[in-house]
Amino acid sequence: MSESKYYLVEKKGHVAWVWFNRADKMNAMNPDAWIDSPAVFKELDEDPEIRVIVVAGKGGSFCAGIDLIGMVGAMPELMENEQKGGLKWKLLKKIYPLQETMSAMEKCRKPVIAAVHGACIGAGLDFVTACDIRLCSQDATFCLKEAAVGFVADVGVLQRLPLIVGQGVTREMAYTAKTIDAQRALGVNLVSEVFDDADALFEGAQAMADVIAANPPIAVQASKDVLNHSIEGSVNEGLKYVASISSNIIPSHDLIEAFTAFAEKRKPVFTGK
Known about the structure:
six-stranded mixed β-sheet; 15% strand
């Protein structure tokens, strides 16, 4: 397995655990997280011993979302005031690889289970909606955060979440950027099961993975392929469209204000510019 600076991969028989391994930053997704994901899941896809993958987070939370400060260096276009065509073209070409970070789980032939405890915010929610099955602990919270910081969510959640919870709940989460708890997540089918705590969650995820792994791999993988085929057109077209929209609305004064307020630890004041 190729070394990753962000992900920790552990194999338990036919099950691979992919850990978000940046606990000191609540597993916020820095450039390494975005770059390494496709290679990690491609290698697990090609590993004949692995039949199921579980994704989880080290420390107190699953994922606090995008590392805003860390990503500025990788995407300086976000902070440019000059909104010229050349800038938009550069930004558009940078969005497509970020989408692949999330699509990697969907493209992997092996079923991927997300085991969520603590916070699952922004990019973390993007990640789990690209997984096949979502489980969580009682302390789990979910937030589609992008609108609150001046972004349109552009790496897949707006395409995948409606297929899981429906249009109404997706629009509520996208427009309000509010946090929902584990019981609401269960009620809207975002998660399949809620466990008492993280330990019980990880045991439950392993148990479900073991059940899946005991089935004929070719039948399980063929089932995933057929299910993906039924939605891939709408997801792929949606990803291309949102990349174009995203590159057109950023950078904005509101986005720069969100970054500035975050750095200054104050509430942002948005003007719609």
